[in-house]
Amino acid sequence: MSVTSSQMPAGAAAPATPDPELPVSPRAASTRGRWAGWWFLGPFMLVFVLVFIAPVLYSLYLSLFHTQMVGGTQFVGFDNYIRAFSDGAFWAGLLRVSVFLVIQVPIMLAISLLVALAVDSGRLYGRDFFRISIFMPYAVPAVVASLMWGFMYGTRFGLVGNLNDFFGWNLPDLLTPDFILLSIGNIVTWEFVGYNMLIFYSALRVIPSSLYEAAAIDGAGQWRVVAAIKIPAIRGALVVATIFSIIGSFQLFNEPAILQSLAPNAISSSFTPNLYAYSLSFAGQQQNYSATVAIIMGLVTMVIAYVVQLRGMKQEA
To answer: What are the structural domains, with CATH classification, of the chain?
Structure first.
């Protein structure tokens, strides 16, 4: 039964109702703001946990066990890691991708930087077409690129063989153990020069024009502008591209996996650590040891990328 104002005792105060126009306390507003931020961040955190944190934790869990037909799954602690550190096939693959990184990455980044500087100079005829043409190979899937280049490398069925037959040349077989790493490096460079060029070109476009005006007043030439203004200004982009390239080198998988059928004598199942982990898991049914190799490679990649980042930040500061 509701009580009206006429039924209330005389002198009794009416119940207070909140005024919607009154300001909210700073503490309540701060709490509401924090929760509002989590509403925006929540979907990303959920996906991040599902696709990154959970697989890493599961791989760590698998690496601590050993599964065999007789005896089932047993907890072995760090035995798999001890086995990996004494595994010659794993270390040979790690050395191979390290050599690949040291040689291929500087060449690729140097070509990308030169192309970006040429496009940014404004003196290149057909600049837009040239920029799109250089970037286009990045849009080609790695599987397609590997098959295409593998066909061209062939001495019996591909471009190299056709050139040998037509001109009477004796070009070397690029799918032999002596040249296979160079051949893979050529494919990766062809794929990612345009990607890194776009990173460098984007950084060059945000350099203040006042720096160029000051350089022109001082009489600086083009090479002086490049060395004193452009390259120092895009050092952050160089560090980012280097880190991405380091990660990509240690994760080398698609190109050797595709070329393996074309060059079985040159590419073994342990040619790279990632290919080794894949072969252990899907061909050798050694998921526990495969997870161990993947965890070790993840740690190696993370440490080296972090060191490069720290060094780049110090030079930039």
So the answer is: 31-75 (no CATH), 87-316 (1.10.3720.10)
